[in-house]
Every structure is written in C-alpha cells, then in structure tokens.
Amino acid sequence: MMEWTDRHCRFFHRLMTRHALLYTEMATTGAVLHGNRAELIGFDPFEHPVALQLGGSDPRALAQCARIAQDLGYDEINLNVGCPSDRVQEGRFGACLMAEPEHVGDCVAAMKAHVKVPVTVKCRIGIDEQDPEEALETFAGAVERAGVDGLVVHARKAWLKGLSPRQNRDVPPLDHGRVHRLKAAHPGLPVVLNGGIASLEAAAAHLDRVDGVMMGRAAYQEPWRLLDVDPLVFGAAAPLRAPKDAAQALIPYIERELERGTRLSAITRHMLGLFRGVPGARAFRRHLASESVKPGAGTDALEAALALVADRMPEPATVAA
Ligand SMILES: Cc1cc2nc3c(=O)[nH]c(=O)nc-3n(C[C@H](O)[C@H](O)[C@H](O)COP(=O)(O)O)c2cc1C
C-alpha cells in the first residue's frame, strides 16, 4: 500500500507474524529501472516472505523488473491491475488494464519467462460499466492461460472517472460472492480475496472458499491483529504475546535505523494503531505522534509512550469485528 507498507512497516509487521506474505508498495517499472533501487525496493531479509508489487504495462520492462526483483531475493512478483488513480491511468497501467485481458496475459507471460518465483496479479472484479461476471471471467481466463501463479481480487469495481482513489476503496459495493464464484470456476487457479476484511475471524470464514485472504487497512490500522495470524491461520505459535512486546521487539531495529540517519517518526508512524482498543491507546498515540517528530527524537520517546498504555490485548468488545 502506497505510503504505508514501506520497509519499516513490513519489518514491524513481520515481528508479529512469521508466516503471512507481506507486500511492498507499488513500484512502477520506470522507477525500478531508472530510480534509486536500494531506496525504492530494498528490503531486510527478515521480511521474507515478501512480494514486490509492480506497476506497468510494457511486457519487456515488466520482465526486466521481475528479474531484478528475483535477483534481489523477492519471493513473489505481483502486477497491479487495481489502482484507479489518474496518474496510473495516464501511464496505461493499474485498473484500466482490466479492459485489456490479453495484454495483461502478455505481461504475465513475459515475466514468467524471466523468473522462477511466482508471478501473481492483483485486480478488481471489473471497471466502469463492465459486467463483473463476464469481465472477471475473461480476465482470469487470460492470465490463467498465460501461466499466472495466482490472482488477488479486490472484490469491488473501480470507477475510473468520477471517483478518487480513496472513494474507489469504499464506494463501489463489495461483492465477495463474485470472488467465491471465480474460485469455484477455476479450481486450479490460486485465488486470494481482498476488500473489507476487518478481522481474522472474518478472514477465516472465507478460507474454505478461496485460497487466501489479503488484509489491507485493518492490518495497517490495527496491527495488533497480526499477533493472531500465525496461531489462527497457520497453526503455528504466535511469535509474540501482546502489542507491547511487538513495540519492544522493534527497539533494536529502531536503534539501528536511527544510526543510519532514519528519523524516528518514519518508523513509529506505523505503530500509532498498535494499541487501538487497549486502555491508554490514545495517550500512547498522542505522545508518540508529537514526540517522534522532534529533531533528534530517540527510542526514549517510544519508551515514554509505552509507559502510558496497558500491557495487554485489546478488549474484543471495544474493537470493530
Ligand atoms: C493508503 C493505501 C494505499 C494503497 N496502495 C495500494 C498499492 O500500492 N497497490 C495495491 O494493489 N493496492 C493498494 N491499496 C489498496 C489495498 O491494497 C486494498 O486493495 C484495499 O484497501 C481494499 O482492501 P482492505 O479493505 O483490506 O483495505 C492501497 C490502499 C490504501 C488504503
């Protein structure tokens, strides 16, 4: 997620789940080929398994970028066919590619020819006036024939004219049933459902009808939810007990990063929702938000914020299901 799932965020999330697949922000092929690669798509080995999401529509450039990503050690390459922003439309990539299934198939085939790691696509159920039954079927058929290793479906349409990217994440209605039907029609195609999944319980309810669930905003805004992912989804022990453990476990990383010149707030901004639903969460958030931006702020600001909040999991009744 742009501006959200940077390498600091992913490192923090990985402390709470050792098994969930983490995704980078979208990186355009132009940026990967010509930009500061270490800055843009560098990552810490601790983040594995991690997928790089690419934005682009030129099969050759995508293939080159996929190879670069594989050489850097990424575990999966994902092509963005869901972003509706004007900038992305001008570049003829993102959600507008839902109208060009065969071309997306060519992109997938080109990437597949250059890498061994899985190549997946993230799409919508349709765009604009498309009929999602037909459009998603045609799209899935084209990428499946091209050898795609999985399809992540954001279960709502994107409206390319008239809605902002933010509105396009909330206004078009969700249709999880459409994604279930896609999986039923393509048993051999790994299908991951995305959109509006607000809790792990809600995620688990889909897992008998699709191969996986992608959580976006709920995972970012209430990261404590990740503490239950390994036991509830993967049948493995939870790496940490409670949100406070996650904050404390991040301190050595923060110290390393501060030494490299990273500002405290660049890391701690991803922690502001960590205690949502725990007594003291508001005081924690306010203290951290105001202190972490001060010049020279160090881990003592985080320690002081942690002293303001209880050491336990949120009350289930206080958080949205
Ligand atoms: C701040 C923000 C940035 C996003 N950036 C991306 C992105 O770079 N690539 C992408 O495929 N989706 C992006 N999305 C969409 C999410 O991945 C997801 O599809 C959407 O939020 C619906 O899932 P959710 O209800 O679980 O959040 C972004 C969403 C948000 C809120």
List the defining traits of the structure above.
321 residues, 7 strands
If you had to describe this structure to a student in words, what would you say it looks like?
The chain is of the alpha/beta class and 321 residues long. It is 43% helix and 12% strand. Helix 4 packs parallel to helix 6, helix 6 packs parallel to helix 7 and helix 14 packs antiparallel against helix 15. The longest helix has 17 residues. The structure holds flavin mononucleotide. The site of flavin mononucleotide has 21 residues, from strand 1 and helix 10.
Q: Round the Cα radius of gyration to an integer and report it.
A: 20 Å
**Based on CA inertia axes, which overall geometry fits?**
globular
Task: Give the ordered list of helices and strands.
Answer: HEHHEHEHHEHEHEHEHHHHHH
By DSSP (H or I, 4+ residues per run), the number of helices equals 15
**Biggest pleated sheet:** 7 strands, parallel
Strand order of the largest sheet: 1-2-3-4-5-6-7
Number of E-type strands: 7
Present the secondary structure layout:
Elements: H1 7-16, E1 22-28, H2 29-34, H3 37-41, E2 50-55, H4 59-72, E3 76-81, H5 86-90, H6 101-114, E4 119-124, H7 132-145, E5 150-154, H8 176-185, E6 191-194, H9 200-206, E7 212-214, H10 217-221, H11 229-234, H12 243-259, H13 264-268, H14 281-291, H15 299-306
Parallel strand pairs: 1-2, 2-3, 3-4, 4-5, 5-6, 6-7
Helix pairs in contact: 1-12, 4-6, 6-7, 12-15, 14-15
